[in-house]
Amino acid sequence: MRPTPNNTELREDSALVENLFSKEAIDAFEQSIQSVPSDYFENFPEQVLTNIRKNNKKAKIVKLLPFLRVAIAASVLFFAATAYLFYNNRPVENTMASISIQDVSNEEIEAYVYSNELIAEVDWQDELNKVGLDAEQPSSLLNKDSNKLNN
Amino acid sequence: MQSDQFLITQFQAAANKEACFTELLKRHQQKVYYQVKRMVTTHADADDIAQQVWIKVWNKLDGFKMESEFGTWVFRIAYNESLNFLQKQKRNNSRVSTNDTLAYEHATAESDLPKSTEVKIVLESAIKQLPEKQRIVFIARYFDALPYEKIAEIMGTTVGGAKANFHQAVKKIENFIRKD
Hints:
heterodimer; A: mainly alpha; 6 helices; about 75% helix; B: mainly alpha; 9 helices; about 0% strand
């Protein structure tokens, strides 16, 4: 319902409008404005609160996003730094490679060669035995080979 | 019954926020809804806008300094939301939609509609053809009987500006009706 004009200026302004429209028209207009679905105002507060709660949840997620990006970037940097340090500080497996030949004495070299010579000789005899030849008879080796070649 | 100021203070102290807000909403929801509906006329639009208004009230209530009455402050938000809606509707070229034009033409032609419906449609169409700010001032002044000082505060304009808007609105409605 329209409030009753309570001062002169308001009454004058109302009269201007009521000159244009009948009371019937204005009442019909107001009636259409006042018609709402049943229980609309009873349910309206809960609808508003539901929307507010939904918006609050969305706002929390949006507020976390910048921190999430920073956290991801920090994790990537951390792993990259850890991997770099890990691979750079690994102990060298082949210590022999880092030793310069000048640091090795003649006696050590000779001992090494002698010990490997014996191993090499044993390996060589084993290979010859496999093909039925004898390392003690080198000439037989040569003749056989040359005969093979001539034929 | 606790005053609006008390409920707002409780809300701002984060004590029973939802309960305080719900109480404030229940006190003012009908006035807000009717004011919005006079401007946009359909229930669906009025409902959408009213929901937006109260969500904004919730978000801004912590910063409300109580320099004006709570009702005036809410109406200001309601009018701004309605204004935004009407301007958006205008941009979409549907300020006076085809349906409204047909309804007006049907009402002003010889028809079998009840007389009250005819004049209601004419009045609705007359209000709808007003520019948004004049529409708001016209409705606030005539239907809500608000003083010009309050209208000026709500609209963020001067008292003289609000008066001018009202009288221009009345003249435009008169011209609209006399066109027939």
